[in-house]
Amino acid sequence: MKLNQLKATELKELLKKKEVSSLEIVSSVFKEIKCKDKDMNSFITLIEEDAKKSAEKIDQKIARGEKLGSLAGIPVAIKDNICVKGNFCTCGSKILEIFVSPYDATVVEWLKKEDAVIIGKTNMDEFAMGSSNENSYFGPAKNPYDLKRIPGGSSGGSSACVASDMTILALGSDTGGSVRQPASLCGVVGLKPTYGLVSRYGLVAFASSLDQIGCLTKDVKDCAMLLSVIAGYDRRDSTSINFEKKDYTKFLEDGLKDINIGIPEEYFEKGLDKEVREAVLNGVKMLEKQGLKTFEVSMPHTDRAIATYYVLCTAEVSSNLARYDGAKYGFRPEGESDLASMYERTRSEGFGDEVKRRIILGTYVLSAGYYEAYYAKAQKVRTFIKEDFDQAFKKVDLLITPTSSTTAFKLKEKIDDPLTMYLSDIYTTSANLAGIPAISVPCGKDSKGLPIGLQIMGPPLSEELILRIGYFLERSLSSRSSIPKGA
Ligand code: GLN
User: Fold this and answer.
1) What is the mean pLDDT of the chain?
2) pLDDT in tens, 333-356
3) How far apart are CA 191 and CA 462, in angstroms?
4) Nearest Cα to Cα of residue 440 among 457, 428, 455, 424
5) Which CATH architecture describes the domain 3-259+397-480?
6) Is the pTM of this model over 0.85?
7) Cis? peptide before 367, omega within 30° of 0
8) Which of 79, 121, 218, 414 is catalytic?
9) Is the pLDDT of residue 97 over 90?
10) At what angle do helices 305-320 and 377-395 cross, to 10 degrees?
11) Structural contact between residues 43 and 141, judged by C-beta atoms closer than 8 angstroms
């Protein structure tokens, strides 16, 4: 096996025993990128020189016998809406094509503190708006299982580069499913933490009340390891939860006794692909065999989640994206002498169609005549959705559902039909609306050989528990065994 095909936990052991150097690991990743990324388009920017320099520094630390950080020498790819000092942060948009981050996001700062090696910035839907990565100004990323298919979105570059061994770990962001859905479609693990568990400082805002940075990894143990580094209180994010940092890998092997699982009927109704349903229910069966009890539960407001999400997220978009005016960041067209036309041309030439659609929709739902009818009502429904979860978690410890209703679809299949595209997130947006943690773990393949993901959701701050169940399922299903290494 090549080094880039290993997991972070395996590489950590090899480094400890001095059987490999960090530079060898980092070089193996860049070799893979050079060979594959022309076709895959997972990366927008590579940070090769700096990455190799950091790797050399870590190797010197190892040689001197110095204490190492918990991710020493491990390559990490960062979604291109998370700031890495001195590097481009495009958000997949023309408007930020030339924008260079003046500082590190908290998560990046903490990764560097733990000696991780940042290797590049990954492709994404423009400002993280999308489910297929087709809204990127830099062209779509591809699914490693079939290059004619989408990798999911908006963290499609991050999920695809983990799945195809072009990195060991990656960060994404999840506002309505953008870590879990691409993880599911690319056959990797994707975790969206509890709102407030991971700092959003240095994450370019899309919809601030829903955004969370999350982990994309080859297995659950790597995910727990990465979460242990990025989770924690940060006073620079006013919504950060004040709690002690912990090591999430410690709890993975704790027993599964007395855990009750809920199966929400609304997540298994029409619209769900038959093969996805079977694979997810097969995962549930594995847990039952282990002695876990499963119960049917009802989440009556599930069918309102998409509408609620799209009213609230577009409202926040219209406000958050007002800052791109040509004066402060990035793109500004040449030759405008008056301010109004400079604003107008910056925004009409700098933003793509989906971003414009959401700004217009968001402005509409917040406008004086419609605020009560749309925005205020959506806020109320958001509370009902959260109450569905509160009620369910009185009866059960966790919920299991599919992550996505289908496996990866073909490029261009849904791009002209935004409403169908929005339905890609039918099972994922509720967790963001309720602020709860959710993980997608691979649970099999369909008859075309495309990966299927199973979603585990838990109450706020139940990351330990959802990781533990994910860890058990992964070992029982061992579904990553046939990743197409040649993709
Ligand atoms: N696909 C959803 C959207 O387009 C979710 C995006 C996300 O989580 N960033 O809004």
Assistant:
1) 96
2) 999 889 999 999 999 999 999 999
3) 12
4) 455
5) Alpha-Beta Complex (3.90)
6) yes
7) no
8) 79
9) yes
10) 130
11) no
